[in-house]
Design brief:
Blueprint: E1 16-17, E2 19-25, H1 30-40, E3 48-55, E4 59-66, H2 69-72, H3 76-79, E5 86-92, E6 110-114, E7 117-127, H4 130-139, H5 151-159, H6 165-174, E8 178-185, E9 189-194, E10 203-207, E11 210-214, H7 218-221, E12 226-230, E13 236-240, E14 244-248, E15 258-259, H8 261-266, E16 272-273, E17 276-277, H9 278-292, E18 299-302, H10 308-318, E19 326-328, H11 341-346, E20 352-354, H12 356-359, E21 363-368, H13 375-386, E22 391-396, E23 409-410, H14 418-421, H15 424-431, E24 435-438, H16 441-447, E25 461-462, H17 464-467, H18 475-479
The structure holds iron/sulfur cluster.
């Protein structure tokens, strides 16, 4: 069967974050703040978005739409249908569920009506035992409305005998394995939860007399909220007007394994993760790369935009001048969502163009965040050589991506990852560049603030897509025949 074209034909060679979640309580017209927050989280998912709000007169109201937040949730006619002081929202890039062809029924937040009142829920991450749970729930009479793994949580809550929605949520989440950062709401409470390993981010902010929960701090800034703290791995916070922020620990203690790729690529560079500036970590990765893989060259260029901070760090450390050798066209967007074959073949040229005047005759170091399939790297190399570069050296700000992610990031199957099939030298020859080097796993850890590098046997982060060391066994995939590293 022919492979489906990617939802965004010019970003098909990147790993894609699945979702961003956001919630606000205790401010008038909370849905407007949620819309702004989701707009700031748009990089985490562009296919669809949704908002649920609650107001005593009209009850729960929801709107779910395909496309960008700015194209939907800026319309007064829509926002007027989402009144109240409490709202949550979600932006989605599909992974679990109807992959690559999101149906509106898969767009979150999801809603459930329970005997003690309704609850809405938005989930970032991926449940690795969702298929087994779904089978069990359907056998016991649950009727699913969507193909999303996240809906399992609503059904597990419905079957719990606990008396309150937060207690039911605790019950449900103890059955769930994998990565989850959840923002949920009842009629009076805003709830935030992170899985025991804290794989995906979630932060708490203060806005006036109210509170906000967000996947990233950059989405607190946009509404003028102040950052209070991160929700801890394995923590549930229940926020209400009467009790403020209450903290619970529903899960057994586990050592944190935050996704290290959030530092490399997913999060916005103006966000703060684990007390560290994402921009500074990325810049430091460039410093590590320059130390680990020096090269004689005339110019350091980022592959925009995500390679930029690492290129600045590489240039600073190596002393090789920095220049914008590749210019990104900021306005290639959904207009080309269904491009003709001819336009698709132009591929990366529509998004990136070479600054010939700077490149011609130079030995160029190109700094990119990752190599996934290698297709984009190859096209960029061709563009740079066409522009008259004397040499092309790739420096990659992450280790080789050789394993798929099962924790909420869209990755090609293992066989399609270039690094799963080839050594570094083979990849260099395949891409046809003068040299290709990746930052080491230890170098990446050092850049992320772990001075001693990766602790063997007890890594401080999830780095499974580089190491094959999965902190939570991907149960559904193993059942389908996926082989862990030890079994290969
Ligand atoms: S496998 Fe990679 S992308 Fe997925 S959570 Fe772990 S580090 Fe992040």
């Amino acid at each position: 069967m022919a492979e489906m074209p990617p939802a965004h034909p010019f970003d098909d060679d990147k790993l894609k974050e699945e979702c961003g979640v956001y919630g606000v309580i205790g401010v008038a017209d909370a849905a407007n703040f949620v819309a702004l927050g989701l707009h700031a989280l748009q990089h985490r998912g562009q296919e669809a978005g949704g908002i649920v709000s609650y107001e005593s007169e009209t009850g729960f109201n929801s709107a779910r739409r395909f496309g960008y937040v700015r194209d939907n949730f800026t319309k007064a006619s829509l926002m007027e249908t989402l009144p109240g002081h409490l709202a949550i929202g979600h932006v989605r890039y599909s992974t679990a569920g109807s992959k690559g062809q999101t149906a509106i029924r898969d767009v979150q937040p999801f809603f459930g009506e329970f005997s003690m009142g309704g609850a809405a829920l938005a989930h970032n991450g991926n449940i690795v035992n969702a298929e087994a749970l779904r089978r069990e729930l359907i056998d016991h009479g649950s009727i699913f409305q969507s193909s999303s793994d996240s809906e399992c949580i609503i059904h597990l809550m419905a079957r719990s005998f606990q008396k309150t929605i937060p207690e039911r949520m605790k019950d449900a989440l103890r059955r769930v394995e994998g990565a989850f950062s959840i923002v949920a709401m009842t009629r009076t409470k805003l709830i935030g939860v992170r899985d025991p390993l804290g794989v995906r981010p979630l932060v708490l902010g203060r806005i006036g007399d109210g509170w906000a929960l967000s996947s990233e701090t950059c989405a607190l800034d946009i509404i003028g909220a102040t950052f209070v703290r991160e929700i801890e791995p394995g923590e549930m916070v229940v926020i209400s007007a009467g009790n403020g922020v209450e903290s619970f620990r529903p899960f057994q203690h586990a050592s944190s394994r935050f996704c290290i790729f959030e530092h490399v690529y997913f999060s916005r560079p103006d966000s703060i993760l684990g007390g560290r500036s994402v921009y500074e970590t990325r810049r430091q990765i460039g410093v590590e790369l320059a130390r680990e893989a020096p090269v004689e060259a005339d110019l350091v260029c980022p592959v925009p935009d995500s390679g930029t901070p690492a290129a600045i760090g590489f240039s600073h450390e190596s002393g090789i001048p920095y220049g914008m050798g590749i210019i990104r066209n900021q306005y290639v967007g959904r207009t080309f969502i269904e491009p003709t074959e001819q336009i698709r073949n132009m591929g990366v040229r529509l998004k990136l163009n070479v600054n010939r005047a700077l490149i011609a005759g130079k030995r160029v170091v190109l700094v990119d965040d990752s190599v996934v399939r290698g297709t984009t790297s190859q096209k960029i190399k061709e563009m740079i050589l066409d522009a008259g570069a004397a040499e092309v050296h790739f420096r990659i700000a992450s280790p080789p991506t050789a394993w798929p992610c099962f924790y909420g990031v869209d990755t090609p199957e293992k066989e399609k990852l270039l690094a799963s099939r080839m050594s570094e030298e083979e990849m260099r020859d395949h891409l046809g560049v003068d040299s290709l080097r990746f930052v080491s796993l230890d170098g990446l850890y050092r850049a992320a603030g772990e001075a001693g590098g990766r602790t063997p046997g007890c890594p401080q982060y999830c780095d499974a897509c580089f190491s094959g060391d999965y902190p939570v066994a991907p149960a559904d995939m193993i059942e389908k025949g996926f082989k862990l590293k030890a079994a290969e």
